[in-house]
Amino acid sequence: MNQLLDKIEQYFVQFCLLNLFCIKFTRLIKKKSCKFSISHNSNKSLPFFSYCFKQFSFPVLKYPTSSIDHYFDHTYTMSQRFADLISKIALPAGLTIALAQASMYDVPGGKRAVIFDRLKGVEQKVIGEGTHFLIPWLQKAVIFDVRVEPRVITTTTGSKDLQNVSLTLRVLSRPEVRKLPFIYQNLGLDYAERVLPAIGNEILKSIVAQFDAAELITQREVVSARIRQELSRRADEFNIELEDVSITHMTFGKEFTKAVEQKQIAQQDAERSKYLVEKAEQEKKAAIIRAEGEAEAADLVSKALAKAGDGLLMIRRLEASKDIATTLANSPNITYLPNGDSGKGGDGSNNSLLLNIGR
Fold this sequence. Notes:
Elements: H1 2-32, E1 35-37, E2 45-47, H2 48-56, H3 68-102, E3 104-107, E4 111-117, E5 121-127, E6 130-133, E7 139-145, E8 149-158, E9 164-175, H4 180-186, H5 191-208, H6 213-218, H7 220-236, E10 240-252, H8 254-308, H9 310-330, H10 348-351
Antiparallel strand pairs: 1-2, 3-6, 4-5, 4-7, 8-9, 9-10
InterPro entries: Band_7, Band_7/SPFH_dom_sf, Prohibitin
Family: Belongs to the prohibitin family.
Keywords: Coiled coil
């Protein structure tokens, strides 16, 4: 709407300037032109520009026998009438358009307006989105952005154990809509720049001073919650709503950082040594258990041999022979097992595959 009114006003101004130029040019031709003699049913001396104007003019004269001066007066009269018409119609129309444009204003999406009256001051009413009207010159619309805006607050302070801490705080804030007239009266459009850095630095220093440097690392969520709670309470006093408050960066001095690194290295070495000790203990226990198992197995074998004689040995031979035969059968290579008693015959051939256990 405002763009259309701007175009109309621009075209109207150009039209008025063009008409004014035509009137001035016509008067200049009539009054200040040089003389040029020409015979046209008379011996009068004729202005040069008037003669040119007659030669190139297209209107048809009502009385062809009239003089060039009569023709020029007729043309000048038409221009004067046209100028009068412009002054009666176009000028009021242009003034009306300009007045209408000055009486309208737009409130875009996500914004609100507060009206400042030169007689009454700031009106205690918040204007919503859309096109609205006001009294030109007497009233002025002040536009506020009520969307959430991010802001970064950075400060350097000391912890409880006197360690330097650099903190970066991210704050998402917006004004309380129904309190916009109060905010404009007391803080202005740059309310966030006036309030948030001041109360943010104050709260950061007061909260961080209650924790040691190590606690700031291990209890970061607790510290962030404390800062959010206190900052929201203070911002509410200035009619500012906080959507989110969080610590984005936290750095310490070089000495503390180096000490923390050395402590972490020592802890890692201690954990590694503890692991090696536990591993040796476990290996020792495993060896003891394995030795005890072997002793019990040997005792059981001895008792079985004493009780059953060669019968147990024959069973073990058969089991071993079965395993060897299975392995050889699955092997792609051909293996030759010599028989020590092949030339003598007898029982030696039966014991060659049994590994002669017990001889």
